[in-house]
Write a structure and sequence with these properties.
Length: 356
């Protein structure tokens, strides 16, 4: 994902509506009502939304590349393509501007039009793979690996490896052979990607050439799998909009036992209690979303882990009463970013933030 625009480092973030009553008390009646509404009762549809145009563009790109298969799309709880089923689920909040605004506030950031198309091309890769059962062939196995390999969310990517294409942030092609194919397909499908020159000399070029060749063979053939049964649709989502975000927060939550491990580093970045006019926690909170997005993007470490680290640093900064001179906010922000990056990369390669 592209990093969000940088906020004013001395502006406190508004409380998450799932956190405290005082945070929700500031919500407008319209937003409060939407948060309390059951998703199935919102009658969300793809028709008439910008998503309809994006899907039409995806289908046009597939046609231009010689692919007659056009995957069915539906609204669900998240981006996805049910394993083995050639259909594409899109997050429900993309179908309504008010829900998209809530996603931007509660989810951290919302997809741009460019990102929506990136994800559609990625999911189309999964759908094409499943429609023709490519993952069952020896050729696919030789190029991408074993499809039946366990799917791990805590995969450890090798940043800047030339064996994989670069598309979705976090070195996503390295997560699993299925994701490797979907990412390769997305790069191949993207208009103007110039993949032959862009990946010249990379190991990933062989994978891109495989996609080119398999589409030449199967692009106009009828799919082997005709099943188009969605996984979870909005009509089946009994929970409220607020329930969705509470559950997502729980799913991404990571408990870390860091105690006071980084207190000395924080004391080197900020001033002591009463030594400057601004609470240092203010800067940590203001930088939180930007660091979460950028560090998880370039390290490949899960957002849950990076979020837990950032929340710990904010809590320790507040508990220690550290302060900050406004004129030093830029320097302090850079040093904080460096600390978070070093700690995250240490976690990537050692499974811990520090040695005892």
């Amino acid at each position: 994902m592209l990093p969000p625009s940088q906020p004013d480092p001395l502006v406190m973030r508004e409380k998450h509506p799932t956190e405290h009553g005082e945070g929700r008390g500031r919500l407008s009646p319209q937003r409060e009502a939407l948060l309390q509404a059951r998703i199935k009762d919102l009658s969300l549809r793809l028709a008439g939304t910008p998503l309809e145009r994006h899907i039409a563009q995806l289908h046009a790109e597939l046609e231009a590349k010689g692919i007659s298969f056009k995957p069915q799309c539906y609204l669900s709880d998240e981006w996805g393509c049910p394993s083995g089923v050639p259909v594409i689920g899109l997050p429900f909040y993309l179908a309504d501007p008010a829900l998209l605004s809530i996603e931007a506030d509660l989810g951290g950031d919302a997809e741009t039009e460019a990102e929506i198309l990136m994800y559609l091309r990625h999911e189309a890769g999964h759908a094409f793979n499943y429609a023709y059962r490519l993952y069952e062939t020896d050729e696919w196995l030789r190029v991408f690996g074993d499809y039946s390999r366990p799917y791990r969310d805590d995969y450890k990517p090798q940043p800047f490896s030339r064996r994989y294409v670069l598309h979705i942030s976090g070195w996503y092609a390295q997560k699993h052979p299925d994701e490797d194919f979907a990412e390769t397909f997305a790069v191949w499908l993207t208009p103007g990607s110039d993949w032959r020159n862009r990946y010249q000399g990379w190991g990933a070029l062989r994978k891109l050439q495989y996609v080119e060749d398999i589409v030449a063979r199967l692009g106009r053939a009828p799919p082997v799998v005709e099943l188009a049964e969605p996984d979870l649709t909005t009509e089946e989502m009994e929970g409220t909009v607020l329930d969705h975000y509470r559950q997502r927060e729980l799913d991404e939550k990571v408990d870390l036992e860091l105690r006071n491990a980084f207190d000395q580093s924080l004391e080197e970045i900020f001033e002591g209690p009463g030594e400057a006019p601004v609470r240092a926690e203010t800067l940590v909170q203001a930088e939180r979303q930007r660091l979460l997005s950028v560090v998880s993007q370039y390290s490949g470490v899960s957002r849950g882990v990076v979020r837990a680290l950032l929340d710990h640093l904010a809590e320790r900064t507040a508990a220690m009463g550290l302060t900050l001179h406004p004129d030093d906010s830029r320097e302090a922000g850079l040093r904080l970013a460096s600390l978070v990056t070093v700690l995250t990369m240490n976690y990537l390669y050692t499974d811990r933030f520090f040695e005892e």
